[in-house]
Known about the structure:
The termini are far apart. The protein is mostly helical. 62% of the residues lie in helices and 0% in strands.
Amino acid sequence: MTQYDQSDHIFPLRFDGHRWLENSGVFSRIIAILPNLKAFIEKAATSLESFLIIKKALAAGDTLIARLELCRSVSSEMEPFLCFFQADKPLAMLLYEDLCQLMRTVLTRLAKAIEIDQLTTGSKLFSHDVPNGLLPARKIDIGFGASAAKKTNQNAARTGQVGLLKNCQIMLIALFKNMRSREDPKSRESTLKYPLTRAVPALSPELIKSNPTRATDRFKLLCKKLLESKHINSIQADSALK
């Protein structure tokens, strides 16, 4: 059996298409092996469907690298959030604010600063219609790696460059909409729109310290929802607010 030295040979990693978690490494690996993969495709000759799919993708040249670089950049922003909230710890109180911040981060790639500044609350952010206040495709932030790959392809047709940026814009819009409207499979509504989801951050020490008024308002909402669901009684709710 042939023995492979991992320091000299790199192989693809498995991509998990239904979530971003740990996929930045997948994109890094495919970018690293593209030159070897291209050399193999040029030498090989087969009519297998998987081979033809890869051959067609590689024909995109530097635009393929730019798309992969954008995916790597975005997934690197997603991963810390996903890893943190997969921990077996009581983190519900931090979810709402952290997700709002992550959504704003995605929006900074797409939208005008003046538009983002108007989204002062989570409710405004979750109800935001992305096409409003969009930057032109040529001005969106696709990251340093994707920008560098795009510049190496300056000789390509202008229509190809515009198409690349437009595709990147579509991908970022789809990502934002998915974050905003992630649905509960039972209710078919976004779990982030539930009043209880907005109320739980009242227990966050950071919110209590930075904005006592907002923390108090959310705590009142939390007590109200717990009372309505009969998890506490009215006496307990009154005592909790004192």
